[in-house]
Amino acid sequence: MLYPRETRTREVKDLNGIWKFKLDKENKGYEEKWYLQPLKDTIPMPVPASYNDITQDPEIRDHIGDVWYETSFWVPSGWTDKRIVLRVGSAAHRAKVFVNGKEMVEHKGGFLPFEVEITDAVSFDAENRLTILVNNVLDWTCLPPGFIRYYDDSFHPHGYKTQEYLFDFLNYSGIHRPVVLYATPKTYISDITVIPDIQGQNGIVEYKVEIEGVNCQKAVPKITIIDRENKVVVEGSGTSGILEIKNAQFWEPSNPYLYTFRVETLVDGKVEDVYELPIGIRTVKVEGNRLLLNGKPIYLKGFGKHEDADIRGKGYDSVIAVKDFNLLKWIGANSFRTSHYPYADEIMNLADELGILVIDEAPAVGMNFFNKNEKVFCNERVNEDTLNHHIQVIRELIKRDKNHPCVIMWSVANEAATYEDEAYEYFKKVIDEVKKLDKTRPVTIVESSFPDETKVGTLVDVICVNRYYSWYTDCGKLELIEYQLEKELLRWYELFKKPVIVSEYGADTIAGFHSDPPVMFSEEYQCRMLEEFHKVFDKLDFVIGEHVWNFADFATKQAVHRVMGNRKGVFTRQRQPKAAAFLLKRRWANLKRK
Ligand code: GCB
């Protein structure tokens, strides 16, 4: 799926801003066809944003079910002979889109974009009404999965229910990413796949262009690769081919060089459509116990993140996005994982531009009761339907992100119950799909299982493991970390002979709490814990990365162990550094390993 970009032949119209919003308290609006008329009794709601924290009303914050959004737009008169597409960056978790009362498309999955051609549904002479129904219920067929708990006891009123899910971050809901209209010619470039390679000093670009629409049979794509100085470095033509850039600049964190891959489709010698894709020439490979970027070992320094901020919730916000990248640069990180779901296109674009490496994660989190008596991979829970949806999400994810040089690895899940026998078959199918669609990037599953119990260690290219020694186990016992962690990591390597990334480690820390000797929740404890982990990483050659949990404090569902959210941030939710930020900045500046 091509990100909507303006070119000579393409226009993008932003529909973001303040929309009308209505809570569907009894979830009856679809049945009553609310979309046929303008919504009544609405309140203003920003798009993109989670709706949960925008008002003072707990009923809106905690709503389970449907909500309605509505806006209106005019179609520019210059678009009469164009193909008009509506694109929703994401809506959590299911959406139905109506244009002028007509149902156009539905989508399941809250963290990926979807689009629909609406050329025949719009009016050029009148204002058009756009209605989006969003539903936030998570069930076992969703990613992430969840379930509704109905209470049948004397402590709860009749009919009381809660949305349950087995991950900690808050189930923020709403239209989370930009909504745009865009226009393309009627014969249009529908997809581009670019696979970069390196031969000596030269960059190799294998490409494939897909064209659809009225004259697609006649259309011939012309390809031009342009450097940053706007110089043409190579040209070609045809729907697929291999191009060579002599003396290419390779994309890497210290030089995130992007070329422009311009496609022009010619129909009877005339330019019909133009699309410009930023590309980076780089390779990623796992060799022995190393991760190689452009043939050289790379050590990952960074974080597991979240899309999360005050008031906006999970809504994309360019202010937060740029601030976060500035903090990543300031602290000396070179990477992050999109824990626990794919992030906004705009964030991926920034990572390309700024040279931050990304482990791109599917929204498969919360597939674990952390209780071996409660099975997850079974008919009533994560089953064939979940698997089919997982595979569908993998397809959408790779289609969206395949061309990003920043994406160096796919993560198919976080902390699933991989100790269950059934997990092997399940993840084999998911990983086979990834490998079928992308033969160039390594694949991982982020583990909480121990090396001797996981059933999936043989399926992945890199072992990613989350570990909380001295936090969730042996609380406060910093002195045990080195002993426990070293033993465990050595075992991972002994069993699987694959490079290991510690993809989560960290301590909840309330900014401003101090204690010496350190106790849990103090800034000193967070620092000491990180240092103990680092001692072990620095001894073990096969450890190829450290991702602290978390970049910033973030909102969670309420629980006795959550003090207004998860406080494992190295930055506060307002993006101010805790003491650990300065520790990491010093460490990462001086780290010898590359
Ligand atoms: C984990 C999860 C992460 C949680 C974290 C924690 O293992 O992967 O989503 O936020 O632990 O702090 O509990």
Automatic annotation (TrEMBL):
Write the Enzyme Commission number(s) for this entry.
3.2.1.31
Q: Where is the Glycoside hydrolase family 2 immunoglobulin-like beta-sandwich domain?
A: 187-282
Top EC category: hydrolase
The domain of life is Bacteria
Among the GO molecular function terms of this UniProt record, one is: carbohydrate binding
Residue ranges of every copy of the Glycoside hydrolase family 2 catalytic domain listed in the record:
284-592
Q: What is this protein called?
A: Beta-glucuronidase
For the Glycosyl hydrolases family 2 sugar binding domain, which residue ranges apply?
A: 13-185
Give the UniProt keywords, A-Z: Glycosidase, Hydrolase
List the GO terms this entry assigns under cellular component, sorted alphabetically.
Answer: extracellular space
Assigned protein family: Belongs to the glycosyl hydrolase 2 family.
> What InterPro entries does the record tag this protein with?
Beta-gal/glucu_dom_sf (IPR036156), Galactose-bd-like_sf (IPR008979), GH (IPR017853), Glyco_hydro_2 (IPR006101), Glyco_hydro_2_AS (IPR023232), Glyco_hydro_2_cat (IPR006103), Glyco_hydro_2_CS (IPR023230), Glyco_hydro_2_N (IPR006104)
A single GO BP term for this record reads:
glucuronoside catabolic process
Q: Name one Pfam family in it.
A: Glyco_hydro_2_N
Q: Which PROSITE patterns match?
A: GLYCOSYL_HYDROL_F2_1, GLYCOSYL_HYDROL_F2_2
Report the SUPFAM superfamilies cross-referenced here: (Trans)glycosidases, beta-Galactosidase/glucuronidase domain, Galactose-binding domain-like
Origin organism lineage = Bacteria, Bacillati, Bacillota, Bacillota incertae sedis, Caldicellulosiruptorales
